[in-house]
From TrEMBL:
Presence of the UniProt keyword Metal-binding in the record: no
Taxon lineage: Bacteria, Pseudomonadati, Pseudomonadota, Alphaproteobacteria, Sphingomonadales
Residues spanning the membrane: none
Name of this protein: tRNA-modifying protein YgfZ
Keyword Transit peptide included in the entry's annotation: yes
GO biological process entries: iron-sulfur cluster assembly
NCBIfam families: ygfZ_signature (TIGR03317)
UniProt source species: Sphingobium xenophagum
Matches recorded under SUPFAM superfamilies: Folate-binding domain
């Protein structure tokens, strides 16, 4: 790995006096309590609770920075603009900032999804590109992100393992897709999970993405069909706990 910049990420800045209340009514995590230096993973869902855009939120004073997939940044900005209506907010890309990552940078925030993912921060763009290194490390931990892996408007948010990866607040109030998400949680009805399996075991109808360079297939599979030996420890433990509670 050379450098720390994740060149496949972009920053959207949401500013204005209504920025936080605006996002609070849309996203799966609480935005009103977002604190400096403590990022939160969240998503904008469809009305049915399916993932449209996943993202990291960062506080920058009264502004909120959205750390998102660069290929989806313009589409996300356009979707947010549809919800803006007459609110006094500005939605714009901030080209002066970039997302950075390192596996070990003790003075930087941990990735909020899983400590094993390493450290992540926002700063001016730097030389080099850590995107491929982070992708390989993230997938080795069984964590998925972006439209290509999660599927856009295809996968229910809790099926992406968002509950286990700190991607939802169940007591924050209403947001788009909340009803179905809350129902699945309180009824413990997450019957399918997004997982990675060797390409040799791929099942086309369940596949979200094929990654030949890593010999992986990302698939949405029924919980009862999962081989615990293929699961990361954090997900195996969560599925076992759910089974014990049923």
């Amino acid at each position: 790995m050379t450098g720390t910049t994740l060149t496949d990420r972009a920053i959207l800045r949401i500013s204005g006096e209504e920025a936080r209340p605006f996002l609070q009514g849309l996203l799966t995590r609480d935005v009103l309590t977002l604190a400096q230096g403590v990022p939160r993973w969240t998503a904008l869902l469809s009305a049915q609770g399916k993932a449209l855009f996943d993202m990291m939120l960062w506080a920058d004073g009264d502004d909120v920075l959205i750390d998102c997939e660069a290929a989806q940044a313009d589409a996300l900005a356009k979707r947010l603009t549809l919800y803006r209506l007459r609110r006094k907010i500005v939605i714009a890309r901030d080209e002066s900032l970039a997302v950075h990552w390192a596996p070990d940078a003790a003075d930087r925030p941990l990735d909020p999804r899983l400590p094993a993912l390493g450290h992540r921060w926002i700063a001016a763009p730097g030389d080099g590109d850590a995107a491929a290194a982070f992708r390989a490390h993230r997938l080795s931990q069984g964590v998925f992100e972006g439209a290509g892996e999660l599927g856009q408007d295809q996968t229910l948010w809790l099926e992406t393992n968002a509950g286990e990866l700190n991607g939802v607040d169940y007591d924050k109030g209403c947001y788009v897709g909340q009803e179905n998400t809350a129902r699945m949680h309180y009824r413990a009805k997450v019957n399918r999970r997004l997982v990675a399996v060797p390409l040799a075991q791929a099942e086309g109808k369940r596949q979200r993405a094929a990654l030949p360079d890593m010999d992986l297939s990302i698939e949405l599979r029924r919980v009862e069909d999962l081989d615990p030996a293929l699961l990361p420890d954090w997900l195996a433990a969560a599925i076992a706990a759910q089974a014990a509670a049923e």
